[in-house]
Task: inverse folding
């Protein structure tokens, strides 16, 4: 006696896989998306703030040989931008170079998109009642050299920062976190600061070698000092993320 395979049941209507409820994707339990979002936000705000040149002790002129000491020259993004490197350290330490590189490229694209939007908005014809076109252009108008400086410095500096941190970690494992944080910051911040200042200096009004040296040295020392001062907080953040990140394994 021959057995026959059961005849498949055909639904009365609609596709076979159609669910009878609203379907949604699951959001993975990870700190990574939130850190990347904050990382990108800091980059966009910092690049806008960096369009303003800042001088501390502007009425004082102090020099040691050919090095200008006072006034201290920097840009408006000096107080926020170091946070980008702290977040970059967290990403590199917890998620590795490949994940951090994705975050860096995502931030690069976000900053470029913001600049494109500001440029397009500046070209749009202002309404008769809008009296702030000049102010908009002065604050948000795209300055090609500033944009190029920010993107180039950020891309090179952040990738170097992550690469150095991960390479040191491969040798030290979970020990000597301080060495990874400081070593990667010194390399990344120096490359970032030098590239940014070399391209952007003229755009914010720096025209002499003395002022340029001041601009580079102050920027580099400030960012490195911030990394050292907030290191206890960075330690706590990294420890918290490692503890609560389901996929992390020491």
Result:
């Amino acid at each position: 006696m021959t057995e026959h395979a059961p005849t498949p049941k055909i639904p009365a209507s609609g596709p076979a896989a159609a669910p009878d409820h609203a379907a949604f994707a699951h959001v993975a339990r990870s700190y990574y998306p939130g850190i990347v979002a904050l990382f990108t936000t800091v980059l966009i705000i910092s690049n806008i703030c960096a369009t303003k040149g800042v001088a501390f002790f502007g009425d004082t002129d102090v020099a040691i040989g050919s090095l200008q000491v006072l006034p201290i020259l920097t840009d408006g993004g000096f107080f926020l931008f170091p946070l980008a490197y702290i977040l970059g350290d967290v990403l590199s330490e917890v998620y590795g170079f490949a994940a951090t590189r994705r975050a860096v490229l995502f931030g690069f694209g976000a900053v470029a998109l913001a600049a494109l939007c500001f440029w397009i908005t500046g070209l749009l014809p202002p309404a008769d009642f809008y009296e702030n076109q000049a102010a908009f252009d002065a604050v948000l108008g795209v300055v090609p050299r500033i944009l190029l400086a920010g993107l180039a410095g950020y891309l090179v500096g952040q990738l170097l920062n992550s690469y150095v941190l991960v390479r040191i970690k491969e040798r030290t494992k979970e020990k000597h976190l301080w060495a990874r944080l400081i070593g990667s910051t010194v390399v990344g911040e120096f490359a970032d600061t030098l590239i940014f200042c070399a391209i952007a200096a003229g755009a914010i009004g720096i025209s002499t070698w003395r002022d340029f040296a001041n601009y580079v040295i102050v920027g580099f020392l400030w960012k490195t000092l911030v990394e050292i001062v907030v290191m206890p907080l960075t330690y706590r953040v990294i420890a918290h993320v490692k503890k609560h990140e389901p996929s992390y394994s020491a």
